[in-house]
């Protein structure tokens, strides 16, 4: 029987420690890769516990902490440096959207997924601006959450289908209004205070945080935002930021 040339060549080359044989994928054996470290933040303890039970059943995922509001989320993210944060929006003390911006500062590599019942377009837009990598409604099957964690950790962006359609519709409307404005007069002048508010809106801050930043009441912030939208003839905070950047009223760095 003639000698197999491939077998001869393989035998002639000594294998280095840890080297992968030719023709095989360079995948780590099951159980040796570092697990995806997940932080769960939701003001409903029962929901947190349900997520934890599902995720802890996965070999490649580890729940490293739980929090009940946005304030705890920021502190824990800075201490634990999670790979993925699953976080609600409507929470006491500090909303998930407000916390999202701070978490990206405290743990820049963390991927944040908003897991919420809110199907409001405004929440979706604000979450994306704040740095969220995903926006999923709690109507999804809890068994789908582990795969969502893996997908976001792997660099994908996830948006629930019903919310994605709203996003497309909003951007289409924004593009149309932008085109209609090209023949209109230059942008109206905003007051210094309105520009301050607009800059903070562009940073992803909510009304409460803007009020704290500027030492004014939350109602005053709402009035400023309403005046900005009226002057610019727009319908949402996101539109105002996009319009202001395009018209060079402000720069986002």
Automatic annotation (TrEMBL):
Q: Which domain of life is it from?
A: Bacteria
Keyword DNA-binding carried by entry: yes
Instruction: Give the residue ranges for region: Disordered.
Output: 1-29
According to the UniProt entry, its GO molecular function terms are: DNA binding
- Cite the HTH luxR-type domain residue spans from the record: 183-248
User: What SMART domains does this protein's entry cite?
Assistant: HTH_LUXR, REC
Q: Which residues form the Response regulatory domain?
A: 37-153
The biological process GO terms on file are: phosphorelay signal transduction system; regulation of DNA-templated transcription
Q: Which InterPro entries match?
A: CheY-like_superfamily (IPR011006), NreC/VraR/RcsB-like_REC (IPR058245), Sig_transdc_resp-reg_C-effctor (IPR016032), Sig_transdc_resp-reg_receiver (IPR001789), Tscrpt_reg_LuxR_C (IPR000792), WalR-like (IPR039420)
Q: Which residues get modified to 4-aspartylphosphate?
A: 88
Query: Could you tell me what this protein is called?
Result: LuxR family two component transcriptional regulator
Q: Which Pfam family name is an example for this entry?
A: Response_reg
Give UniProt keywords alphabetically: DNA-binding, Phosphoprotein
């Amino acid at each position: 029987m003639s000698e197999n040339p491939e077998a001869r060549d393989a035998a002639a080359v000594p294998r280095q420690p840890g080297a992968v044989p030719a023709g095989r994928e360079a995948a780590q054996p099951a159980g040796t890769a570092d697990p995806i470290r997940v932080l769960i933040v939701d003001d409903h303890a029962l929901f947190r516990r349900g997520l934890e039970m599902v995720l802890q059943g996965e070999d490649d995922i580890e729940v490293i902490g739980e929090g009940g509001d946005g304030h705890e989320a920021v502190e824990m993210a800075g201490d634990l440096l999670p790979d993925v944060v699953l976080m609600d929006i409507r929470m006491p003390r500090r909303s998930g959207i407000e916390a999202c911006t701070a978490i990206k500062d405290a743990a820049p590599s963390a991927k944040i997924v908003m897991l919420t019942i809110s199907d409001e377009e405004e929440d979706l837009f604000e979450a994306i601006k704040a740095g969220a990598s995903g926006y999923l409604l709690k109507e999804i099957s809890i068994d789908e959450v582990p795969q969502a964690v893996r997908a976001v950790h792997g660099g994908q962006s996830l948006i629930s289908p019903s919310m994605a359609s709203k996003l497309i519709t909003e951007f289409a409307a924004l593009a149309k209004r932008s085109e209609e404005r090209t023949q209109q007069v230059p942008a109206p002048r905003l007051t210094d205070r309105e520009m301050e508010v607009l800059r903070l809106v562009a940073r992803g801050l909510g009304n409460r945080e803007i009020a704290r930043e500027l030492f004014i009441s939350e109602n005053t912030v709402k009035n400023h935002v309403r005046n900005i939208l009226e002057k610019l003839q727009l319908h949402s905070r996101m539109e105002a930021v996009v319009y202001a950047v395009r018209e060079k009223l402000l720069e986002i760095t």
